[in-house]
Design brief:
The protein has 173 residues and is α/β, with parallel strands linked by helices. It has a five-stranded parallel beta sheet with strand order 2-1-3-4-5, sandwiched between helices. Helix 2 crosses helix 6. It has two domains: 34 residues; 125 residues, Response regulator (Rossmann fold). The two termini are 30 Å apart.
Amino acid sequence: MAKIPVYIGSTKGRDPKEVARNGVKAIKKFEETRDKVVRKKREKMLRGKDGLVIYFEDDKMLGKMYTIKLEKAGLSVLWEKHPTEKIISSLAEIRPDLIIMDIIMPVMDGWEATRRLKADERTKDIPVFGLSNMGAKENQEKACGLGMADYWLRAEHTPQEVADKVMELLKKK
């Protein structure tokens, strides 16, 4: 932690304006240091032991089940019911370690959300893992073409297998 200069002693015989300026400088330095420490602590809490995952899933039961499974694996998970323009643009600031994307969702589907993420310079390197009930071969190819790190048919994998795959993708990052 940075050292913060503090004036201890008498101000007698000193220019009051100089004392005030030094006090203001010390307070500003303290506030900057405090804010930096608070930001780092918040980020560390948000990230969890092994990383931060954003999970887009409109099915409440599936959202809760996979969130719990991933959190038990040591990840912090922010579960959103569906992507919106505002959420997609905020991901550039949040910088999650991985995004799990359902495909069929209201407002914006997973294909469009992935297309927008990969088109943005600030988010194009965030791995996107497609997890959906749409299992046709052309969906696998479309996922690959959009730049998804992988695409799985949910019904073919247990929640533990999904958690293991997420950890594998995070290690590759």
